[in-house]
Amino acid sequence: MKSCGKGHFYDDSAHSTCPYCGVDMDIGATVGVSNSVAQNVEVEASVTRAAGRVGAPPQRDDGVTRHIWAEKLGGIDPVVGWLVCIEGPDKGRDFRIHSERNFIGRAPTMDIAIAGDASISRENHAVISYNPKKNRFSLAPGDSRGLVYLNDDEVLAAEVLTAYDRIELGASKLLFVPFCGEPFRWSDGD
After folding, report:
1. Is there a single domain that holds both residue 20 and residue 77?
2. pTM of the predicted model as reported, rounded to 2 decimal places
3. What order do you get walking across the sheet with 166-169 strand by strand?
4. Is the same domain home to 36 and 83?
5. Is 182 left (phi over 0), alpha (psi -120 to 50) or beta?
6. Partner residues linked to 45 by β-bridges
7. pLDDT by residue (tens digit) across 25-40?
8. Does residue 28 contact residue 17 with C-beta atoms inside 8 Å?
């Protein structure tokens, strides 16, 4: 992974430039005048500092949000269903659906990355979610310009999904195949 000057992360083996902002990372890089360390700067006495916490030291936060079911099942974020591409550039490919919200787009950072279809928005074209408490799946439009269709009807707000529903994004048609449902659901003891 590589980071551009604006903080976007991307796979430099797949992209020579940042796919988010189009900045060429190989030319025009900022170079410092010298490699020496700047001298220490005195802080004025009037500058206030945040008071330290009383009690136990703060826990280290590695910045990764963990799904509640992944924590309950020993660190594994279990599969709860699949999308299978039945028409479009990725025909024949399957995409795993995990518990809670799954963002769909072309970018490799998406939970469901449909990279082959250029007519799907890079990020957040749609969202499929699995609610483990209600044992229910739903499909909602994302915040992109592109439309989402469920069984040939435009999705304007969250819609409940049932087995073998057809979802259309860009030039791709996907078949929804649930794993969790009436016959099975993940629980703490499984």
Report:
1. no
2. 0.61
3. 94-98, 79-87, 172-178, 166-169, 148-150, 153-154
4. no
5. alpha
6. none
7. 444 555 455 555 555 5
8. no
Residue pair 111/102 in contact (Cβ under 8 Å)? The answer is: yes
Same domain, 95 and 136: yes
Specify whether 16 is located in the same domain as 104. Answer: no
Q: What's the pLDDT band for 23 if we cut at 50, 70, 90?
A: very low
Residues 37 and 83 in one domain: no
Q: What pLDDT does residue 11 have?
A: 78
Whether 102 contacts 79, CB under 8 Å: no
More confident residue, 90 or 68: 90
In a domain, 111, yes or no: yes
**Same domain membership, residue 78 and residue 13:** no
Look at strands 112-113 and 100-105 and give their pairing. Answer: parallel
CB 112 within 8 A of CB 97: yes
Residue 162 belongs to domain spanning: 73-178
What pLDDT, in 10s, does the model give residues 100-146? 999 999 999 999 999 999 999 999 999 999 998 898 999 999 999 99
Query: Residue 186: inside a domain, yes or no?
Result: no
Cα–Cα distance for residue pair 100/82, rounded to 1 Å: 14
Q: How many CA within 13 A on the CB side of residue 174?
A: 31
Pick from 173, 156, 155, 165: which is nearest to 117 by CA?
173
Classify residue 51: in a domain, yes or no.
Answer: no
Measured CA to CA, the distance from residue 152 to residue 129 in angstroms comes to 20
